[in-house]
Design goal:
single chain; 10-stranded antiparallel sheet; two-stranded antiparallel ribbon; 7 helices; binds 3R-hydroxydecanoyl-coenzyme A; 3-alpha,7-alpha,12-alpha-trihydroxy-5-beta-choles t-24-enoyl-CoA hydratase; MFE-2_N
C-alpha cells in the first residue's frame, strides 16, 4: 500500500544534521535570480561575501543543500512515485536570523495526511536548532500526491486566507530566466520534473516546470526588496500554497496588501493572464 496513514501520521524521521557555507548562500541567491543588477549595493548583499545576508527561505533548503540525487518520497507508511508529486505548501518561521554559515540539526515528522479523493496531501513539520541547541527555524510543508487519495483519511482544511476588499497596496514583478530551474536544481533538488522534458511530459506537463521552492524564494526576495528596504532580518515567517505551475522564463506578478505585522499576497504569471502561482500567502515581519 503506497500510503498507510496509521503508520505514517506522527512518524518521526531520522534527525538530519547539516551545515552550510557562504558559498551555498551565494548559490541559493543566484538560483533565485539575485544579482541581476550587480551595481546595486542592496543586490550585492545577496551575491557578494561583503555584508552578505541570508534570505530566510534558505532555511527550507539548507538541510538538503547540494544533494545530487532526486528526492525520494519514501517515509514510514509512504512510498510513492516522484512523478505523481507536486510541492503543495511551504511555510517557515525563523527564530533568529540565519547566519551566513553554520551547522544545525533538524527533527522532521509527518504531521498529517489529508485524503482529497483524487490526491493525498502529506504534511511535514520540522524544527531546526543551531549548534548550541537554540531554535533556528520551524517549517511546515506539504506535498500533493496526485492519484494517491482514497485511502479513507480525513479531508483536511481548504485554502482559506481572505484578501482585503480593496486594491492591492503594491505590485511587484519578478522575471525568471529560461534556465532558472537548471540553475536552481544545483541547490539540492534534482527532481527531473524541473529539467527533463520526457519526465515532465510523463507527469502531464508540456515542458519542465520551475521548482515550487524557487518561486517561493523569488517572491520572498521581491517582498524583502520591495517592502522591507532589502533587510532580510525583518522577515519573521513566510508561508504559501502552490496554486499553479510556473514555466522557467515567465514573469511573476505579486500583489500585496499590508497590515501591521503581516503582508498578505498573491502571485500570478503575467504571460498567462495572471494564472495563479501562490495563494494563501502571508509574510510576517518584525
Ligand atoms: C520528500 C521530498 C518530496 C518531493 C517534494 C517536491 C519536490 C519538488 O521538486 C516538486 C515541485 O517543486 S513541484 C512545483 C511546485 N508545485 C506546483 O507547481 C503545484 C502547483 N499547483 C497545482 O498545480 C494545483 O494547485 C494542484 C495540482 C496542486 C491542485 O490542483 P487540482 O488538482 O485542480 O486540485 P483542486 O481541485 O484545486 O483541489 C483539490 C483539493 O486539494 C486541495 N489543494 C489544492 N491545491 C493544493 C495545494 N497546493 N496544497 C495542498 N492542498 C491543495 C484543495 O484545497 C482541495 O481540497 P478541498 O476540496 O478539501 O478544499
Amino acid at each position: 500500500m503506497p500510503i498507510d496513514p496509521s503508520v505514517a501520521i506522527g512518524a518521526e524521521l531520522p534527525e538530519v544534521e547539516f551545515s552550510w557555507t557562504a558559498s551555498d548562500v551565494l548559490l541559493y541567491h543566484l538560483g533565485l535570480g539575485a544579482g541581476a543588477d550587480p551595481e546595486d549595493p542592496r543586490e550585492l548583499r545577496y551575491v557578494y561575501e561583503r555584508d552578505l545576508q541570508v534570505l530566510p527561505t534558505f532555511g527550507v533548503v539548507a538541510p538538503t543543500f547540494g544533494a545530487t540525487e532526486p528526492p525520494r518520497v519514501s517515509f514510514p507508511g509512504v512510498d510513492i512515485d516522484l512523478a505523481s508529486v507536486l510541492h503543495g505548501e511551504q511555510g517557515i518561521t525563523v527564530h533568529q536570523p540565519l547566519p551566513v554559515a553554520g551547522s544545525a540539526r533538524a527533527r522532521i515528522r509527518i504531521a498529517d495526511i489529508h485524503d482529497k479523493g483524487k490526491a493525498a496531501v502529506i504534511v511535514q513539520e520540522s524544527e531546526a536548532v543551531d549548534g548550541a541547541g537554540n531554535p533556528l527555524f520551524t517549517t511546515r510543508s506539504s506535498i500533493f500526491a496526485r492519484g494517491e487519495g482514497g485511502f479513507g483519511g480525513h479531508r483536511g482544511p481548504s485554502g482559506s486566507t481572505t484578501l482585503p476588499d480593496r486594491d492591492p497596496d503594491a505590485e511587484l514583478l519578478s522575471p525568471t530566466l529560461p534556465q532558472q530551474a537548471l540553475l536552481y536544481r544545483l541547490c539540492g533538488d534534482r527532481n527531473p520534473l524541473h529539467a527533463d522534458p520526457d519526465f515532465a511530459a510523463a507527469a502531464g506537463f508540456p515542458r519542465p516546470i520551475l521548482h515550487g521552492l524557487c518561486s517561493y524564494g523569488v517572491v520572498c526576495k521581491a517582498l524583502v526588496d520591495g517592502l522591507l528596504k532589502g533587510d532580510t532580518a525583518r522577515v519573521a515567517g513566510f508561508s504559501a500554497r502552490f496554486a499553479g505551475v510556473v514555466y522557467p522564463g515567465e514573469t511573476l506578478r505579486t500583489r500585496v496588501w499590508e497590515s501591521d505585522d503581516r503582508i498578505l499576497l498573491t502571485t500570478s504569471v503575467v504571460e498567462r493572464d495572471d494564472a495563479p502561482v501562490l495563494a494563501d500567502a502571508v509574510l510576517t515581519i518584525h
